[in-house]
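--- STAGE predict ---
source: upstream dedup step, 1 unique chain passed
mode: sequence only
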Amino acid sequence: MNIAPLNRQFQQKIQEKINNKTKPVGSLGQLESLAVQLALIQSQNSDDLVDKINLAKPLMLIFAGDHGINDHGLSIAPSAVTGQMVMNFLHGGAAINCFCQVANIEINVIDCGILQSVEGEYNNLVQQRLGNGTNDFSQQAAMSLAQVEQGFLFGQQLVEKAIGQGRKVLLLGEMGIANTSAASAIFSALSPYSVEQCVGLGTGINSEQLSLKIKLISTALLRLTNNEKANQSEPDMVKQVLSEVGGFEIVQMVGTILAAANAKLPVIIDGFIVSIAAFAAMKINHNVGDFLIFSHVSQEQGHQLLLKEMDVTALLSLDLRLGEGTGGALALPLLQAAAGFYNDMASFESAGVTV
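--- STAGE serialize ---
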């Protein structure tokens, strides 16, 4: 995808509109920056800046996949819990369901490749399986390059459907036991940081599990350093990394982020796992970052380092480490507040206020 950077021709006019609201200049802090970003995104296909920011029909996409690396017991839970939590999402019983209900966000759950496919019909379930969980990446590549490409295509299809439904903002979440292992491996492979710096405790593993996690990821990354990379473009290198140590849910999120940026659709990014997908997408095309809003800083040490590496500021810091898209759902009201003041707050002139 030839994703262009944001055209900033209207940025000065947007900023003047915000500065003329009945408030001291800059007094709404990050909400003002957020309003500028949203107004710029939604003005891309217009001859003038948008009069009102539109965040209609927000959609939470929860990507679920299982990981062969968990055969080594790297999580506090067995892989079967991924499927159990998918059923919990579908029946409305998880934290993300509660938060989305409060914020009036619709949820779709995407089966990207959990161990066993869901039986029965559910209106909010999307079957886009790439397999029955990835391979154990400490022994072999997690998936083929063909599966990576298919995952990107699946993500693009989700975005096309969302646009057809009139969605104006997407939120991404995930579920996958041991996916912090895949995320940490991707981060270390695509950054200057060591495995030890990128790996954290995930859902709360003990010191023995942490040591094993570091060892297995380090072993897997030896395949990448031993491979011939000199003639690979950065997008091809990212795909190779995703093939070697990625997850089915992660590659579909990368594809979704790329397609959303190409369609000039803002995306709210959750915690460590979703941020890794964003990082990979930005490595493929740096302009993707213009369309992303990072919702929160998680307790996972790799996430804090990752946000610093991407040079982005998250909206919230609530010590969250659940995943599911919970940080994104909590952040949406801040986007709505930014849109609200941009759309409806009086100017000094219209309110008859003299400073």
